[in-house]
Amino acid sequence: MSLKLKKGVNKQSAYNLRDPNLDYEAAHTLSIIVDNESGVLARVIGLFSGRGYNIDSLTVAEVDPNGHRSRITIVTTGTPKVVNQIKAQLNRMVPVHEVIDLTLKGKAVQRELAIFKVVGNGNQRVESLRLADVFRAKVVDSTLKSFTFELTGTSDKINAFAELMGPLGLKEIARTGIVALLRGDNSS
Amino acid sequence: MTHSNKITGAEIVIKALIDQGVDTVFGYPGGAILPIYDELFQQKKIKHILVRHEQAATHAAEGYARSTGKIGVVFVTSGPGATNSVTGLTDALMDSVPIVVISGQVPTFMIGNDAFQEADTVGITRPCTKHNWLVKDTNKLAETIHKAFEVAGSGRPGPVLVDVPKDVQFASGHYTKKNAIDTGFLKNEPPIDLKMLDEVIDRLEHAERPIIYSGGGVINSGQSAVHSLRNLVAGTDFPITSTLMGLGSYPASGKNWLGMLGMHGTYEANMSMHGCDFMLCVGARFDDRITGRIDAFSPDSYKVHIDIDPSSVNKNITVEAPLIGDVSNILNSLTKRWKERGSKVNQKKLSTWWKSINDWKGVKSLSYENSSNVIKPQYAVERLEELTKSYNRFVSTEVGQHQMWAAQFMGFEEPNRWMTSGGLGTMGYGFPASIGIQIAHPKSLVINVAGEASWLMNMQELGTAVQYRLPVKQFILNNERLGMVRQWQELLHGERYSHSWSDALPDFVKLAEAYGIKGIRCVSPDKLDDSIREMVEYPGPVIFDCLVEKHENCFPMIPSGKAHNEMILGEQTDENTISDDGAVLV
Q1: Parallel, antiparallel, or unpaired for β B172-174 and B210-214?
Q2: What are phi and psi of B195, to 5 degrees?
């Protein structure tokens, strides 16, 4: 046999051909335009759970009532290979019109809205209001011993605010998950 | 019916199917689909085949579809009817077979109330269809059915399901013609990447150790793809191997044929895959049965992947050159461009390569030790092949050792002649599939090569075969074992044969007689030929009970977790063939 390949893994093994970035996991924000029909969200989520992909954040709402289109924004984490698979699998679905990888496409505006309920007395209460002002959070409800703040911003900002509110009597948080659009005058 | 141009939902279903050119439906009636069955009764254009279990209807439709290139159609009722179709839908999804299942559903106003025979059919079948629809408005019924056919047949084919509540079947609505629907929902094929194509041809021209590896996508793409593939092989003189699903895309008698590749593929095919420097994958998907150990798969090759489905590319194996599109289009462009550039190949290196391949062929990896007392299963398949290959023949199989032996020892000259459950590996596929094939090809010889355990999974279809006078031949290699399970237990689980054996098998000859058909039992090698001839020449259905060696293993074999060049060729190979890492694989 003229082929002098040894048995099993050897110097010609694919181990050495591996892309060094292959195992590098990164978060990607995907914007998915779908028909707003019954079951469409279940299809998309079912794809992620069925194939073992991650969903870090998910938002969905109709954005074009005349065309019955919704935009689903999903933040997912995976190696480049897995993220490409996710996009290809999404593109196969009949009600999916477009899948835009905002992370690859360029700079995107990414925002999240959160509502915080902070319960406390005296100095704690004053401090929470002062920090809310620093973060430009709005007071949307109040009792004599609580504030409810509304805050919009990047996920980092919301995380930071949540961390600060922790010792000041943070009771509950509700977050929308990320919505995002590409910057600039191009539609994505 | 009161309105001049309105018809009932049930009429719409039948009209839409006729509009789509459907001539045959496989199905089973029940409460929620009765209005459609009532319409079916009052027309003559569509023939209905009453199966004995809804799973069989889906496999029969698969057999029909794969042997004709048309779309298979199934009627089932709500609840259990729909859930019974799930295995067939999943099978069709894995093997890219276009079928349309129309299921009855409880009336819209009862959905969600746990009504009698209610199941969330679109929910259950969502992950096992290309797409599915619940139709709540009779006016949208025709359009949805036409869309369903478009989705099933276009791109990478697959199964779809349309769920039709009973009140929608009774209500009246407008009919939409087939060509009046908007097909904007279909995915566009991207233009061929010409720069990539040129790079591929450059590699092809210089390849020292090339191989072509073809799959079911060639057959799905149609005659033109098969023709182009054969031309390319003839023009380049490259060796070619196929997956289980691709058998028949290149003729088994062709001089460049290396046999099937993969877990139970030939030594020459797998060694060529391992050692090649240029791999042209045409309409296959680097399935785990093909690749063996991923990180040692064909380590030294430039890989080209032609596939219509972008999600198949770089899924298991990263390739250098993806070419996305219909196999036929891409092969045509590739061949045309290659010819324009002078039809060059690296002739000198190629003949050295063929020399190695011929050495590997010399190993005769499909050889087995024959016996004069007991029928070896390989021998039975070999004789079946020899005695039936001159016929206008279609073959289906069940799943297991017999399936692999059939793939190894039977030769297919043309596409659409070989129907087997590849991706899902559905035991019980073959018998109903043979029924679907025979319906589509009433004059042809249809043989289901089966194991007794698989065959028993859908044996109720004897009723269907008899009712429609279908002369299907059930060639059962009876080893009284779950052969492949037994083989894995021997190799992997210390010969502890946990529940892979049945001591309550029926007398297959009497079983045949109970249905008024012919049963043949063969126990000795010297009677085999005559018995096979008797089966083939008998004008009706036959159950052929071929009692074979009980402990035969299927070789060659790439054990799980091993690479192509680590195949085991036979029983004499040393112990510890499967590592602990490999043992967790399937």
Answers
A1: unpaired
A2: -65, -45
